[in-house]
Amino acid sequence: MYSQIDSNKRKTVFLIMIFLIMIIALGWLLGVYLDYGYGVFLFAVLFSIGSSLISYYHGDKVALRSTKAKLIKKEDNPYVYRMVENLCISSGMPVPKVHIIDSPALNAFATGRDPEHASIAITSGLIQALENEELEGVIAHELSHIKNYDIRVMTIVVVLVGTIAIMADWFFRIRLFGGSDNKKAGGAILVISLLLLLVSPIVAELIKLAISRKREYLADASGALLTRYPEGLARALEKIHASNQPLKTANSATAHLFISNPFKRKTLTSFFSTHPPAEERIKRLRSM
CA 240, 244, 249, 253 torsion: positive or negative? Predict the structure, then answer.
């Protein structure tokens, strides 16, 4: 379990470093092409950070409201609330706000910027379908997302993706409405700039999805470490994967938060999925 945690942390850092290298390269190419120095690059970074900070501080409320998650107290559902409470005591973290989504779908998610401002939401279908150890495994997985500051990591990733998208958009708009007066930029640099700016948003999105999948593996391993029973989460994932019931209140903006793809649609390729294959997750859990 510890080796899985260390591996996933290293891979996340590596992918974020690739992001930073891409942004620096794009900033340099835009500076050469436009002959504006690095002003455009800095503005793109600041704009992305500003817009992402708004979602960072208020995105949890939007996610909970959009999925129609209802806040509960201990007396509303003692079974679920005490399970969350006990796992938090074991891990030494504050008890998050507990929400239930009235849906037959089997799913759950965590949100919030840090352990002190966190919430978890569980569907009523999941509570009914899972045994005690299985539900405990799912809750431990979601608590691990909070403890590992995954929302913070993904906010940073969103900033980086947004910066790249803005820079690419500016380049094409400048090309469309007049081009550049810079005579020093050679033909080779212009061709490279065009190719890089064309491909970079796609690459950025793929890296974002890869980081999202690595955080799922990390939460699986951390959750198993918390319960000391990887089989519980493995069996829960089998039941969740076998269910074909989509979560109707989910949307593309919140899909990456859930423990499993809430749409239950098969994508053309796993590269474009926010979640790793369930079979691989189960295999890793059972190898611990």
Answer: positive
